[in-house]
Amino acid sequence: MADHDEAKRSPRVCGIEWTKRKIIGAIATVVLVIVITVLLVVFVIGPKIAQSSIDGSSLTLTSSSITGATNNSFLLQSTGNVGNAGGLAATLNFPQPVTVSWTNREKGAADLPLGTVQLSPISVSGGNGAVSLNTTFSVTNVDAMTQFSSYMINNGNFSWRLTGPASATAMGLTFNNLNMDKVVTLSGFNGLSGVTVLSFDASAGNGNNVNVSVTTQLVNPSSITMQLGTAFFNFVMGTGVGTMSANNVTIVPGNNTLSMTGVLLPASMSNTTNAVAATVSSLNERFQALFANAVNNVVPVQVTGDHTSQPANWLNTAFKAMTLSVSMNLTKIAQDSVSGAELTLDTSSISNITETSFQLAGSGSAKNAGFMDATLSFSKPVTVAWASGNGDVVLGTLNLSPVSVSGPTPKSGKVAVDSQFSLTNQDGMAQFAAYMINNGQFTWKLSGTAEAEAYGLKFTNLKLAKSISMSGFNGLAGVKITSFDLPASDPTTGIHIVTGSTIANPSTISMNMGDVGFLIKNPDGYTIGNLKASDMKIVPGDNSYTLNGAMKVADQAILSDLMDKFLNGAGMDATIVGDTGATSWLTTALKSMQLKAHVDSPVLTVPIVSGIKIPSMAVDMIVADTTGNSVLVNSPGMTALFQVPYTFPINVQQASQSLYFVDPSSGTQFATFVTDMQAASADQTSHILTTSVVGGHLKAVPGQEGAFAAFMKELTFVSTASVNIVGNATSIASTDAGVAQISLPLKDSLALTGFQGFQNIQILSTKVVGGDAKAGVHLQVSLILNNPSTLSLSTHVDVTMDLLMPMPGGAAPVKVGTAIMPNMQVVPGPNAVLSDCYVVADPSNPVSVAVVTKLMSAFISGGNTAMIIAGSTNSIIYDSLKPAFSELRIPATIQGPAEGKRLVLGSTAHPVGRSDGGFEMHVDFNIVNPLDTPYTLLNIKADVTSGDVAVGKIDFKLDPPFTVPPHSNATTPLTTLIQTPAQYAQVFNLFLGALGAGKPGLLVNATQTLTASIGGYISPVELFSTDILVTLGA
What we know:
By secondary structure, this protein is α+β, with helices and mostly antiparallel strands.
């Protein structure tokens, strides 16, 4: 039943019913297969694969070194690679030292074990890996090692077989009991056959010995480096035999330089330290004996190894087997010495220049001249070419003096030249000379043949090809002008120039160029003059010259710019260009020379223009500009000190100014003073420049109108006004160099005489010529306005001043009218002015009425009246003059007409009976009019006295008004004398007494108040008339 149930539950796969027993059996089978497979891989298949990889791989050592050799070992350092080591990443280990055997020997000889070496693990990936050894090679067979070492030194390659146990690790598995058996082929030293003698030096030794120093080059074709330490050789050179040694020798792959020293004895000479027993030969004799077997200066040399300082018998035995044979070609050595020598000329000079030659002298040195004491001579001139940028340019030929070299290797010696350089190419020489002058370095190429003599041997037909680099003049850029003068001139050549200059020559070359001419050009290349130097010689370092020439410029603008900058402190930038030389080729070269020079401006002890003076100046106001901030200025004569720092003639033709007026206290520029060009002249003896100002402009600087007005005010009141000026004075001057316009700085102080407030006025006459009911009494005042200044002022407008009458006790003056100065113009000295004045009272002001009454009374009666002519802000229309005119206070005195001193010439009294039986007197007056206009009386009031007697009163209204013509007299109508009866009787008796005494009448005094109309202006006049003769009428 159970089986039946199990059968019912078991699944079927691929037609198989899988019971538990079947499943467990299958798993066990798979596990068993895996275990068997792993065991096969680990113990059978894996080791075979690992061994196959080792056997199929290649081992290469690309470089090796053998150092620290002893009888039993040496240090081996190698690098290389493994190839074809299978596809698995693995590490090869060497549990024991491997044996190194010399294999692949000649004639199939058996492998020869040499020793053992411990190899480092080698890791490979992708079939390749790197090999790096730094281990001790233990020598197990010294005889075999000796035999191998000799072979390695003298042959081109050798093979080592490396055998020993190994193990490999791959995929986490280690495979033991493997074997390594690899052949490595390396390059040998091949006898070091590529030997070249690089240098040879010798000196006399003891007896006839020759102390020798030889430097050779050994070519090691091997990739092996071998340390020899001190190497000792048996040496045969020519007939000489001896020993030599080289210290610290390590032969490396490629070129090796060995410096060996030793002693040789020529075979034909015996050696002894006993000078009596043998003759000691000279060094040359020893060399001649040493090289006796030389053929065509080729000396055989044989070098055989003797031993090294390394304590390894196998190495020393092998070293003894090394023999080097080389031929030392002395001619080649001589040629190499000539070819390798470096020639320099440290100093040189060029003189005696002609079209076809010059003398070249110089000194220098020969360096790196090989290892033989020798003398080089030149039987033929050498060809000299210039190495230009476009190829070599042959210049000519030169005879060279012999050159001897000696001393330590490489040999050296002095070079001296003093011979004629013969030119074969003048055009080329011109190009070269231009290049030498303008560049910092050049190269000459010397070519030809030479002969050498060394150690008594002669070498001929040696090729000479030398390059000598020398420093050029580099444009002679360091030009300094140390002095500059323009002492004179003439119409033909212009202004003469005498200048001192220093030219810095950076070259080691001296050159005597003879007489040299130069052109002076401005920065734009325009020729402005010329200079000449006599017998010009330039040496290394600083050179001082005195150059003479002249300047002449036809273009006025160019000359103006040049002189303007020069005299204003900017100096003069010029290019000095060569123009003429002693030969055509030198002339061509000099024309390429451009020396940049700067001439400093002269140091001025005094300004060129100073001390400006304007003896007289006219200021014209411009009516259209009521601000008055721009005025016209004219002056017939303006002078200044004019001191040019040179003595050449200069004819100033015109001058103008552009200046600022500067306030001395604040330093503020408040006005510009600009004048147009006017004719001018300058006296170079007195240094006085004279010109004029026509239509100049004095104008306030915007924003400084107040300061300008203050300056005009100062001019009005002071005796001298000083103002600082700064700007430029421009002149057009004619010189022998040409015509130039020069603008020169001007900083000075200008003194101008002021008007002093116009305080000196003389009134010549005052006439009353009319009047107006509103304007007042019209007076015409003739006066002299004395101007103490040298300034003139033309206002071109009427100036109205106030007439003020001083008041006693310090009270303020009272205005009594106005004075008009028509078209006011003031020139220096006396100015005749006819002024229209109007006297008028303010009827609303009793004080004004009283003062005007007093004035008119005094004037009409012929009295003098002190007045003040006062300005105000309304006196003139110009804003810039208002502050000045508002403070004008001019004292004056008005003189009344002399006729007015007796205004009443006389009177007639007529006794008349009254209706009441009494008597009264009717009187008239003979009135004088001293004025220049009719005088109309409207009313007369008077108190009349005679002595102490009151005669009576008059209160007479004239109806119609009574007019007296100008400068005439007239009698008024009769009016009643107001009296008391007693007065009448008393006066009548006085008349009778006077008549009885023979007098024509009675003299009376009258205090009068007249009301008069003068041209319609009514004014009271208060008078006191004395001694009026009153006659008695019918």
